[in-house]
Design brief:
alpha/beta, 16 strands, elongated
């Protein structure tokens, strides 16, 4: 089919590569404009833009696809279908209806649970045991369209948003290619989403990432893993020159009791409002991620210390 692909982050790049390798004609690739990244905050292309350029595909990075000129340029592509994976913009009806067969989205949850911007993170943070990737027909409502295909994934006890993202990217790329083949052959079946059970995966804000030790251990463990590696759930620890901001990147809920935020042993077991959390991987501000043993050699946090 003649397609446009719209996406921005790594999971979208994996899908774009699979779609291109499957032999579809990718008439244009759309991605969010280059954004400041890294320590120097230099403008850098998104993973999708970088891949499109390496594949020699036409790349477009409009600030908004609601601009009338951009809508007309999209219509002029004369598409069979549009494929959308974590693009980062809500698409107007004119764009969704421009392709002959419609627009199709790969979403990283089992809809209607976790519609919205951060389904991978929210599923782990909520303690979900199962999630998945789904291909749906896009409508004007937020992630409300009928489902064409599903791949289910278990969420492992030590899962982080990073590891789940990578598994979803692999599963989603294969599912998307298979579904596009079904659409092209006219054998795809669309199933309306359930009317009940909708939840919304709100965008992660910096305030969301702060750890509050008064919360239960299971909740904090889910938050730590759900926000790892980015943006990283964080707390403050005493340092030689004052408080040090530390990101917790991997953890495990364990038994333990004490005043919330108290370090209970010399291997970073921290008391919470209910139970305790073992911090397994951490990152000091301005430094790289470290396993707990290596981290403690640089910043000792012995039993009895109070974290904020």
């Amino acid at each position: 089919m003649r397609l446009a692909f719209l996406g921005t982050p790594d999971i979208a790049a994996a899908c774009l590569n699979a779609v291109a390798q499957a032999g579809h004609e990718v008439a244009a690739v759309y991605a969010q404009p280059p954004a400041p990244r890294g320590r120097g905050q230099a403008l850098r292309p998104s993973p999708v833009q970088a891949l499109a350029e390496s594949l020699g595909l036409s790349i477009r990075t409009p600030a908004s696809l609601r601009d009338p000129a951009e809508i007309e340029a999209f219509r002029a592509l004369d598409l069979d279908a549009a494929v959308v994976v974590a693009y980062g913009q809500l698409l107007p009806r004119e764009v969704l209806e421009a392709p002959r067969l419609g627009a199709f989205n790969l979403h990283a949850s089992l809809l209607p649970r976790w519609r919205g911007a951060a389904p991978i993170q929210r599923a782990i943070m909520a303690g979900d045991e199962v999630t998945g990737v789904q291909v749906m027909r896009m409508t004007e409502g937020l992630d409300e369209g009928p489902i064409l295909a599903t791949a289910r994934l278990d969420i492992r006890p030590d899962e982080t948003a990073g590891t789940l993202h990578d598994r979803m990217a692999q599963a989603g790329a294969g599912l998307l290619v298979a579904t596009l083949a079904d659409i092209a052959a006219g054998r795809a079946v669309e199933t309306p989403q359930a009317a009940e059970g909708a939840t919304y995966a709100k965008k992660i804000s910096p305030r969301t990432a702060r750890l509050h030790w008064s919360r239960p251990a299971a909740e904090l463990d889910g938050k730590i893993r759900g926000l790892s590696p980015f943006p990283g759930a964080w707390f403050e620890a005493p340092g030689p020159r004052g408080p040090v901001r530390v990101k917790a990147l991997l953890s495990r809920a364990e038994a333990g009791s004490g005043a919330p935020g108290t370090v209970l042993d010399d291997a970073l077991l921290v008391a919470t409002g209910e139970g305790a959390v073992r911090l397994l991987r951490l990152q000091r501000e301005g430094r790289g991620p470290q396993d707990a043993a290596d981290f403690l050699r640089g910043l000792p946090l012995p039993a009895g210390m109070q974290l904020a």
